[in-house]
Amino acid sequence: MPITLRDVATRAGVSPSAVSRTFTDGASVSEKMRRKVEKAARDLGYSPNALASAMTTGRTKLIGLVSNNFQNPIFLQVFDLLTRKLQDCGLRPLLLNLTGETDAKTAVRMLQQYSVDGAIVASSTLPPEFSKSFRDAGVPVVNSFGRFSTSPEVHVVGVDNSECGRMAARTLVERDYKTVAFLGGPEAATSTQDRFRGFFQELAKHPHVAHSHSFAAAYSFDAGRAEMQRLIAAGDMADAYFCGDDVLSIGALSAVADAGLNVPQDLGIIGFNDMEMARWENINLTTISQPIDQILQSSVDLMVSMLDDPDRSPEVRLFPCKLIERGTLRPLS
Amino acid sequence: MPITLRDVATRAGVSPSAVSRTFTDGASVSEKMRRKVEKAARDLGYSPNALASAMTTGRTKLIGLVSNNFQNPIFLQVFDLLTRKLQDCGLRPLLLNLTGETDAKTAVRMLQQYSVDGAIVASSTLPPEFSKSFRDAGVPVVNSFGRFSTSPEVHVVGVDNSECGRMAARTLVERDYKTVAFLGGPEAATSTQDRFRGFFQELAKHPHVAHSHSFAAAYSFDAGRAEMQRLIAAGDMADAYFCGDDVLSIGALSAVADAGLNVPQDLGIIGFNDMEMARWENINLTTISQPIDQILQSSVDLMVSMLDDPDRSPEVRLFPCKLIERGTLRPLS
DNA sequence: TTTAATTTTGCAACCGGTTGCAAAATTTTC
DNA sequence: GAAAATTTTGCAACCGGTTGCAAAATTAAA
Hints:
2 copies of one chain form a homodimer. By secondary structure, chain A is of the alpha/beta class. Helices cover about 45% and strands about 15% of the residues of chain A.
């Protein structure tokens, strides 16, 4: 059924190699030959088979897109941008959904079977070792939104989460909140741990500010709401909360509203991610944003450069986060 | 670098065919041989190359996942479920992001180059002809969330959008709203058109109920809010609105709240999709839900059955929608 | 115009598997 | 225990391209 290179060769009355060469750039083909072949190809509706070509060249132009964050709304944007950017480079994303599955070995094998040229691990919760398994298996990898190290073993692109924690703490202290708290997402996530560390590191500089912390069960509205309800019921409320995620914040806000507390006077909330919903007038959440587009562009750029030079030494690219001032924090006095 | 079948054959001291056979089920291999080969494979860490295998078998186990809906939060769930379900069947999703691009020819070619075994077009906005191009090119296709026809040319799984429109109209009339309106998403989407048709078809049975309609520029909070603001400013408000999507509804709700109107007494709103946010206590949107999980399971089932029998005649599978009663519509009197 | 240098083309082997066919090995039947 | 029936194995060709190498064709130099 499908047209092969040999079909084209026959119709054009040339050798298969000639056809192959007209479709690989950089190959030696005369103008006359190229025209002849292109005509035949057009007539027949031929387009080269990427898989067969991959057999000899060893490059599939397939990039594994690995993630376990299919619950977080921000990731729809991540997938959108990432797939578009990859497509723009002539690369095709092969999706691997690792929800509820963290075995790196399996993940690597699943991608290796398809000879992917590389893999982008987009996750703020998978540990660095996860990405390392890809590198160890010889699969070029970049970890987007991952935890960085000063002596990285794989490319990492993202933000400095502990700096984000410090930024949140600094902001709350500036706004004159006297007791502040960290309301994190799932404790196992590296991003949670890093922000936690940064947050309390900064607070240590302000001994007059009381602090506490707790963790929500998931990055979800319900988990945020439940945890805030628990805190309210327990009666040991802080003045201000740094939440691990906007959805969490919004859940917390809803519990706070139910309790009749006044935001931002009685209680401040600062979120993380600046997702779509944070901008909604009826939510209007003050939050910290990470430059998603830049992170992903940089990830793809790194990926592309690794395809040329697989032994490129691992690099860390961090982008600054930004405070997005809205209505859930007291203004600077 | 990577271990080939011949490496395994050499180490096990058997022929390549033997190795191939132990890895293809249904092939004739003795117990003794199988054990020998499996041991060698394990020792070497061999796993068969899906692409090479595809060359002779003609099956890649790659399924194109085509969509242009990377803005709608509901699609994160769609991607999550679809990829998991495909993976569970041993299939791998090759993502194709068609945002701002509707040329079916290109899309087909992009997938054909990778010899996908089939394609799932997940979109409520692409026209049936789009999916048809795949079928015409010999690529088994199922259109999830698509517009159905009584004499379908491709498999379609989804809901009867015009029935959804009727359901919305029926509900609003029941609740005793006297002037009702359709606040649709982008007019070009088939789902918008179908719901529009159903909505007014039902209203035609109730001549005492006044009606009107308009369309938002996008499926977004801002578009919904802007359109509702425009309506409020124009001063010709209806009693109740059927919005094309929950995000749109939420935007509209925010405009309504700003205007000091009382929901659900002065004004009723009914959304569509029952997304996560509709459940949030501070939104509490009455909406119509489509059974996403069933739709996708059915899509994958159809896909799998087509792989066995590519000439299976096209089928339409429609699932019922359900009214999710929350707080933005007057109760039944 | 002849010869040397350069470019274009085709041949054939290969990438990593699969599979039809016949030979070899095993099991069944008598 | 020999012959027939059945199962297992290996050989070799093939899937749809690519590529090193040498022959053929073209261009440049003499």
